[in-house]
Amino acid sequence: MKNLYDDTKGVLISREEIAAIVKRLGKEISEDYADKSPVMVSILKGAFIFMADLVREVTVPCSIDFMCVSSYGNAATTSGRVKIIKDLDTNIEGKDVIIVEDILDSGVTLSHLIKMLSDRKPASIKICTLFDKPEGHKVDITPAYKGTDVPNEFIVGYGLDYAERYRNLPDVCILKPEIYA
Length: 181
Ligand code: IMP
Ligand code: MG
Description:
The chain has helices at residues 15-32, 48-55, 108-118, 177-180; strands spanning 8-13, 39-44, 63-70, 83-86, 96-104, 124-132, 145-149, 155-156, 172-175.
């Protein structure tokens, strides 16, 4: 039987480490939004597992919504284009929005998204990203909430994919370069 871990160079961040990080982020958000009721907007598909775990660590009332944007196709490098595949169901005018993203790399996806969502006049808009690749940044972007920095390598698992695979790995692993070469 094929083992998904065989395509990786091993575990970078274990499920236990991820759980601790997500718990900390939930606490930070709960404290900052103590008197508010944020709309948590998850960016599909990569952030779906993070979103599910994060909202259960948030103790203030919140609503959830999903958006699907695409900038990568099946390639491991950014194309610099962002396309809305599924828009929000919620009207975010006057709402406190938290964008829940799996990983910040070039920042192109998120900066486009922030621009688009800002036009809808939310009361506030902040980014919560689980992972950040500081070496990859091409635009000036600072997430209000960040799980942890990761090296400039292609990682998969815990929702993150390569060509739609590996999302179901419970740990975050570094993909072997020969898989995407
Ligand atoms: P950005 O516009 O370059 O910041 O693109 C961020 C998006 O690219 C994320 O939401 C991911 O879908 C994808 N991405 C960037 N780096 C990785 C990675 O190491 N593994 C899996 N997906 C990644
Ligand atoms: Mg992706």
